[in-house]
Amino acid sequence: MKITLLTVGKTEDKYLVEGMEKYIKRLKHYINFKLVELPELKQTKNLSEDQQKAKEAELIFKHLNNTDHLILLDERGEEYSSVQFSGFLNKKMIASVQQLVFVIGGPYGFDVTLHQRANNKLSLSKMTFSHQMVRLFFIEQVYRALTILKGEPYHHE
Ligand SMILES: C[S@@+](CC[C@H](N)C(=O)[O-])C[C@H]1O[C@@H](n2cnc3c(N)ncnc32)[C@H](O)[C@@H]1O
């Protein structure tokens, strides 16, 4: 199974880039993981919030295959413990899902078309994080989940 993380906008802060690189490097020993950073449109065009979300959705859809299992990162989604999240990933592996695509929205969240297409919505907390910071938190949780599945000590350290 492959895992792709789509983000809206490049990661700007060096401390986040460094943290993400650290965990992506580790992750690659466990799974085929890809980070795709899509352009954030607001900087180039004068768009309303809804127009921006619709344009972002168009870009996101271009990166999706019909068989992809799409999971939106959304504070209103389902909350898991790290062990439960590892179980979720394991179930998808057993079900032979080819690719899980997780998406982190832009500053305004997701267009309705993405909510309709989503197979799941995952919340990391009821709190709202910046779309920049949530990347690092999520990538670390994927790494944590995979070490849990392997029975490695990281989760208990
Ligand atoms: C600043 S938030 C957008 C908040 C937006 N007002 C909304 O209602 O969705 C930007 C993105 O970060 C992600 N995000 C922020 N907090 C999150 C959380 N607690 N759990 C999961 N994803 C989160 C989501 O992907 C969201 O689209």
From TrEMBL:
Q: Name one GO molecular function term.
A: rRNA (pseudouridine-N3-)-methyltransferase activity
Transmembrane feature ranges: none
Which is a Pfam family this sequence falls into?
A: SPOUT_MTase
Give GO cellular component annotations, separated by semicolons.
Answer: cytoplasm
Reaction catalysed?
pseudouridine(1915) in 23S rRNA + S-adenosyl-L-methionine = N(3)-methylpseudouridine(1915) in 23S rRNA + S-adenosyl-L-homocysteine + H(+)
Recorded hits in SUPFAM superfamilies, A to Z, give: alpha/beta knot
- The record's principal subcellular location, in a coarse class, is cytoplasm
Report the EC code(s) recorded for this entry. 2.1.1.177
Keyword Cytoplasm appears in the UniProt entry:
yes
Family of this protein: Belongs to the RNA methyltransferase RlmH family.
NCBIfam families the UniProt entry points to: PRK00103.2-4
Protein name according to UniProt: Ribosomal RNA large subunit methyltransferase H
Organism name: Hufsiella arboris
